[in-house]
């Protein structure tokens, strides 16, 4: 009689098959901000690793990260995923590759067990790591997470890269000497002048 796999074993099998397509890809070193509680970190409990959503970056979590570390007494790491924020850009980009990047970050920082706090698509990254390394994940807090999605080449070409290029062109319009509050004011003003889609885009830019 054929032995049936458990759901966890089946998921691991699927992950191992798909990962073979990416085994020759290089990981990248992720940019990270670290937050410590004002009255000292409790090193006996697991740190928190925060991951942003698509086309955002680590700065979107800065206020939440400060609050979390003070409330929980945990050290908080807020990451920029590949092709986002201050982390390196690569043509190759998928949920599986991003998970490898995060695993490298965990290993290089000797993080044996963590709590993941994720927003949107980065939930898939935490999910992949939890499947492969269940003992390294204490908890997962997933905010507004969609069903699992691997960001394949077609999705990147049609959706992700064009938006990244638009964001980069927008940022280049700013004076490097401009203060953050002035840059936000400029974006918020532009948000009042265009279509509804442009309004949402500029308001999002003002929050970064």
Automatic annotation (TrEMBL):
<feature type="domain" description="AB hydrolase-1">
    <location>
        <begin position="47"/>
        <end position="152"/>
    </location>
</feature>
<comment type="similarity">
    <text>Belongs to the AB hydrolase superfamily.</text>
</comment>
<dbReference type="GO" id="GO:0005739">
    <property type="term" value="C:mitochondrion"/>
</dbReference>
<dbReference type="Pfam" id="PF00561">
    <property type="entry name" value="Abhydrolase_1"/>
</dbReference>
<protein>
    <recommendedName>
        <fullName>sn-1-specific diacylglycerol lipase ABHD11</fullName>
        <ecNumber>3.1.1.116</ecNumber>
    </recommendedName>
</protein>
<dbReference type="GO" id="GO:0052689">
    <property type="term" value="F:carboxylic ester hydrolase activity"/>
</dbReference>
<keyword id="KW-0378">Hydrolase</keyword>
<dbReference type="InterPro" id="IPR029058">
    <property type="entry name" value="AB_hydrolase_fold"/>
</dbReference>
<dbReference type="InterPro" id="IPR000073">
    <property type="entry name" value="AB_hydrolase_1"/>
</dbReference>
